[in-house]
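The methods section describes the discrete structure representation at length, but only in general terms. An entry of this sort, consisting of the sequence and the corresponding backbone structure tokens, reads as follows.
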Amino acid sequence: MEMAKTYSPEFEKDIYKFWTDNHYFEAKVNKDKKPFTIMMPPPNITGQLHMGHALDDTMQDIIIRYKRMSGFETLWLPGVDHASIATEVKIVEKLRSEGIDKHDIGREEFLKRAFEWKEQFGGRITTQLRSLGTSCDWSREAFTMDERCSKAVKQVFVDLYNKGLIYQGDRIINWCPCCGTALSDAEVEYEEQASNLWYFKYPFEDGSGYITVATTRPETIPGDTAVAVSPNDEKYKDVVGKMLILPLNGRRIPVIADEYVEEGFGTGAVKITPAHDPNDYLVGERHNLEIIKVINDDGKMNELSGRYNGMDRFEAREEVVKDLDKLGCLVKIEPYTHNVGTCYRCHTAIEPCLSKQWFVKMEPLAEPAIKAVREGKTKFIPERFDKTYYNWMENIKDWCISRQLWWGHRIPVYYCEDCGEIMASVDDVKVCTKCGSTHIHQDEDVLDTWFSSALWPFSTLGYPDKTEDLDYFYPTSTLITGYDIIFFWVARMIFSAIEHTGEVPFKDVVIHGIVRDEQGRKMSKSLGNGVDPLKVIDEYGADALRLGVITGISLGGDTRYIPKKIESCRNFLNKVWNASRFVMMNKENVTIKPLSEVKLNLADKWILNKLNNTINECTALLDKYDMGMALSKLNDFVWSDFCDWYIELTKPALYKDDEEERANAVSVLVYVLRDILKLLHPFAPFITEEIFQVLTDGKEGGLIVSEWPKAVTVDLTGAAEFENIMEIIKGIRNTRQEMEVAPSKKISIYLNIAEENKYMIEEAKSYIEKLAGVSKIEYLTENIDKASVIVTKVATIQIPLGELVDIAVEVERLEKELKTVNSEIKRAERMLANEGFVAKAPAKLIENEKEKLANYTEKAKKIAEQIKELKA
């Protein structure tokens, strides 16, 4: 097997096929190994791969590959989410394009078409994930509506219903008029919007005056059934109990006192609309107020709103304000910016409205889930994110789980049309359990998508059945996910798992941020700043993308997608490729020795010591999930220590005729390269597997299942001393660069070094000569004239200036440079002395000129000193 001359990631598809053909991703129950399980957060079947997936799935894959190589039986279980709202919207749009309304074809036909759409497009994202190199067990791919998950959903619903933890009731819920369904609190996103605060007068029935109320929602005024004031507000104590006349329709409404009203806030009086505000609803319950719903589910006003019937709610807002102004009831309008709840899916403003829905009683479920995190059974990494979790769980409201859709898990509740019996059942109910009637119909609504997603860690392993998989792989080990779904998903998985399995669903929750664009903005369709990972993969390869999204990340923090970072990662991979090819070419016709049989020189010991440190650091960092720092340490070792230093250090031995010395050098090169490939494999799996197959002639199976490297145990005495040799080489190189000495010019150096340290120089003489361009090394104790002096930890190095430069030529060059610098000094001084320039130019430009003048002055001083020294 041979490596191509240049690195090109065209082999990535072949490598992925090699892995899948050999079943390397598949997990089996193996009692001889410890399990390590990650459940992939299931992407929506409507989704396409985006940069968020690239980051999230690369992080998961890094940990899975690391644990697989560390000897665990690793299960990374993939799957997709049915995404009720998003998918139904897609199907409805498709039907609409064909001129069909979903109600025309009925539920059964609609679902048939939805499943057809799912088969056609639903697997798109998992296909795309493969191109990223994800090593998940595709033989176990799950779907939140597959038979196994559906069975768990029904069982959990029925269990909660029988325990009294699921109930149906009239509540103020979040309604999306556009999607036509209820939303849970977690599905509402708040956006800051500029609006107005309108002040209106509500006259007393007895003509004794009026109360002024302020509102951001004038369109709900036809549904007002009271005005509330604080019971402690002296200003209103005499009017509590009096009746007001609602200006628009003349209906009588009372003035009530309620603790909900904050004394001194605004006018101190608040209009109460129980049907369209959750707080007003609670006030209405306490005071037995009438509930008048004036806005329909489609966001349009209804007949109870009077003349506004049929108007859109925002159109009605304008008309209500006009009408109240004509009646003389508009007091004033103030600009007002406030947070408006919007649908997470379509971003339409949410309409709080009264509706009969199904709810999960949260308090009994939240308590043990909070306790589990406090006791450390589940840990958030970074730890600060447990505050987000506690904040949501400690203030949680009952969870509205019913959705007015057809796509999703239909609620397993059945109604008897004869006796009214309500039955929750895992199996379809054909006969009423109370009266024996066969006139049965099932609830029309479906469950919130997150209800089934909350069961993902155990439903995918066979729950409610007691399967071997569930017993072995559950609880899972780690969840890796973004901070934006801690309450959407993470919290719900924790309380669901504890309630139904008696255990937490995972031990660690590793939180990452979102991928932003180069300017730090969130990627979105509206900004047009999204980046297609597949295009990046086509151009640079999956390994470059993976390295790019991991480079520089810190857990919990956002990261930026910077194209130059991807190019830099591609350059790193090219460096790895070329270094590997160098090793391959030199190992031809060489018998590779075990490390224990190699006579190690100082350079060998130095690189093996560096390798040991890198193995220990990367292992510790990956155990803490700090992938960004692990990659940084690995990058430094591979690029600087191995490629830039060690490969160069081996060249004298490689190009000698001494076969023994050559075999030693190649053996260490191969050993270090092999461990580099293993360390780098979780991050860049394709290129490392490709190189490994060539290195081993395909005789050792997959790198993917090889053993994670351990620190070498051979004698590395003196390894640290080589740093002293490197310091000498760097010092000479820097001096040559400063003096602009041609790379081809060989120089003599004179060392003042303690007698006991001379052995280092003698052993490393060939390295100094090769890497620093030295032709002669001599020892002395006195100083020599006209020399450049380099002081290092173990030696003082003197290089005669004549060795470095032709003094006369160098003086001439420096005098020319000084002339140029002096002319720049005069130019800057003239500009800064020009009163017109100083008066009109921006402050920043003036500061730049002052900085330039200071730099040129300093440079002129140094050049003058160099000229003086050379002439002396």
Remarks:
- The chain has 27 helices and 29 strands.
- The longest helix spans residues 843-871.
- The chain has a mean pLDDT of 92.
- The radius of gyration is 37 Å.
